[in-house]
């Protein structure tokens, strides 16, 4: 059963959250519910590596972008 909830959020965060929800094709309520579910299920905030695992695409070493980054950061 769903229940309405009123939240107070910094005004600058609302457009960003709506944009994120739109990009994912879900409602803002689903975004908030998912975040709350993650916190409730884990009991703690997940480490960076677990939160972002699989979200970054690798760049082939032969690409121009990789070469520019390698030169910049001396990889």
Give the H and E element order. Answer: HHHH
Distance between the termini: 53 Å
Shape: elongated
Helix share, percent: 55-70%
Secondary structure: elements and pairs:
Elements: H1 13-24, H2 28-42, H3 48-52, H4 64-73
Verbal overview:
This protein has helices at 13-24, 28-42, 48-52, 64-73. It is mainly α. The protein has one domain (13-73). The mean pLDDT is 87.
Any key phrases for this structure?
75 residues; 4 helices; mainly alpha
Offer a quick outline of the entry:
The protein is built from four helices and no strands. It is mostly helical and 75 residues long.
